[in-house]
Amino acid sequence: MNIRRSKFIAILTGFISITICIAYLLLITVFDFRALLNDLLSNIS
Predict the structure, then answer these.
(1) Residue 15: CA atoms inside 13 Å, Cβ hemisphere, count?
(2) For residue 1, what pLDDT is reported?
């Protein structure tokens, strides 16, 4: 019983960490694209 609970907690923690990692990478990608877009728009005018 104790081993089953430990495995569940380990899998849940891994899933949460992977989810946070993917969200972080998406945020970094969006903000990097916005900075590139702002540079392009400022160079046009």
Answers:
(1) 6
(2) 61
